[in-house]
Amino acid sequence: MDEKLEPVLAEIERRNAGEMEFHQAAREVLETLGPVIARNPDYAKDSLLERICEPERQIIFRVPWIDDNGKVRMNRGFRVEFNSALGPYKGGLRFHPSVNISIVKFLGFEQIFKNALTGLPIGGGKGGSDFDPRGRSEGEVMRFCQSFMTELYRHIGEYTDVPAGDIGVGQREIGFMFGQYKRITNRYESGVLTGKGLRWGGSRVRTEATGYGTVFFLKRMLEASSKLMEGRRVVVSGSGNVAVYAIEKLQSMGAIVVACSDSDGYVVDDDGIDLALVKDIKEVRRDRISSYADERAGKSRFVKGGSIWDVPCDIALPCATQNELDGKAASTLIKNGMIALAEGANMPCTPDAQRKFREADVLYAPGKASNAGGVATSALEMQQNASRDSWTFAQTEQRLETIMYSIHDRCAETAEDYGMPGNYVAGANIGGFIRVAEAMRALGVI
Ligand code: NDP
Ligand code: 2IT
Which of 124, 144, 269, 288 is the most exposed place for a label (fewest CB within 10 A)? Predict the structure, then answer.
């Protein structure tokens, strides 16, 4: 790491003691900024780097709710409003028992640069709760969402902070939260949340956007190296929102998706995953992926626990969660002949895995570039809300595709410009950083 940047990271580690995921995300960005500081030393002045790594505001709150047995439960809620130089804070809400301040901060930090890369006017933020939706009835989820919003509403707004979904938060939860926001404020303020349903202010393609966008990015990245998608064997981890729509787009482009997973284990189906069945299991029944193998007995197998990255493939798409793919998994993928990996999840590859991909010279798309299609389409939802308009599926998907190609090209060109051709990690970090840094400098000491 550049010697000017080392003390910045040391201070982040001291100030945010024990926040491992946040340290990891900050280190990855700072490690790539050396050439930028060398070319433009102004970026290292006026504590600009220190300010970018410090959230503008961090909100932590109690979320009490009552379960179906009448027992009072309590969770912790978070919203980290990280950077608003480019627009209102924007980023998802995650409901998962692992959520803590470190995870929310790493996600919020990455979101700043991701959102900057989209070229749309959105700042960076993230939030969520350690609430575990697994096994909870719809009534419990609703009461939790209402209690969560009863505190959050005072911090958000269409010009202030615009949350959306992430792990454990989909259209159902956004609906419950939007309903509560509307009751408390007595305003039909559509632009306060994105990921809404089509009948109440949502945008077409938002549900599909992260998965589709990741595949558009992947396609462009393959084409830039004169490689094709058709006929490739692909492994996609997860079976949630991002995974399902990544699989849908991969299949429509002629790739063969042979495995997907959830936190219990993975299923392999050499004929290609039956996506209608996965959607039914996950979106309708809200069941476990193991039932896929039960229903395709003889054609598919379920591996409990274990690593989905042991399944041989040409292309890997981690679409579940952070640090789900480590150095060992990276070595296995490389040994099995993987040519490309695109991250649908946020920070799914450990630093060790990233290093192995770099050394093996495989195509590697970092999440803050390749999964930006979700938030980009959220910004398109905000545009439609502001103009009280509603675009067609084709028109919205066309916008998404164009945005993903332009993010790809910006990353590729930036990496090239800074003497690291093919290094999409550096291209994404530098490209995003420069946009945010320029805006922050223009706005005075903020
Ligand atoms: P969902 O809740 O819809 O699905 C998450 C999937 O990942 C599930 O299959 C889940 O399995 C699995 N998973 C979650 N946590 C773990 C874990 N600790 N170990 C193993 N598997 C796990 O979430 P999304 O699809 O929306 O999000 C997936 C990833 O994509 C996240 O990293 C998120 O931050 C990122 N992302 C999401 C965007 C969006 O618009 N939704 C946009 C950009 C990035 P199980 O059901 O067993 O928990
Ligand atoms: O990680 C992400 O980019 C998201 N969860 C989507 C955020 C958004 O505001 O749509």
Answer: 288
